[in-house]
């Protein structure tokens, strides 16, 4: 399955490798696009058409003032 990162009308394909533990490093371009930071939660949505999308749920750690 091919994964794409879109910028307006442009589409960019960014590969990543699945480890034996089922882990994937999210490439820096994807982290920036989603606004992800260390400790943030990511949700994956599997659609009926077979597509899978990811979005940020944001940080679940308490903020320090």
Can you tell me about this structure?
The chain is mostly beta strands and about 60 residues long. It has one helix spanning about 30-35, and strands spanning about 5, 10, 40-45, 50-60. It has one domain (about 5-60): Ribbon (Pemi-like Protein 1, Chain: D). A two-stranded antiparallel sheet has the order 1-2. The chain has a two-stranded antiparallel sheet with strand order 3-4. The relative contact order is 0.17.
Beta-strand content = 25-35%
CATH class descriptor name: Mainly Beta
Please count the helical segments.
Answer: 1
Derived from helix and strand composition plus strand pairing, the structural class reads: mainly beta
Shape: globular
Based on the structure given, which CATH architecture is correct? Ribbon
Q: Major beta sheet, specifics?
A: 2 strands, antiparallel
Query: Topology as H/E string?
Result: EEHEE
The beta-strand count equals 4
Give the total of domains.
1
Query: Would you tell me which CATH topology applies?
Result: Pemi-like Protein 1, Chain: D
Q: Rg from C-alpha positions? A: 14 Å
Task: Give a quick rundown of the structure.
The chain is mainly beta and 65 residues long. The protein is built from one helix and four strands; from the N terminus they run E-E-H-E-E. It has one domain (5-59): Pemi-like Protein 1, Chain: D.
């Amino acid at each position: 399955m091919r994964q794409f990162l879109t910028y307006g009308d442009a589409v960019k394909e960014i590969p990543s490798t699945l480890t034996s533990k089922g882990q994937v490093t999210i490439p820096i371009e994807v982290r920036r696009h989603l606004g992800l930071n260390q400790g943030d939660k990511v949700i994956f949505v599997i659609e009926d058409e077979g597509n899978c999308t990811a979005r940020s749920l944001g940080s679940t750690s308490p903020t320090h003032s």
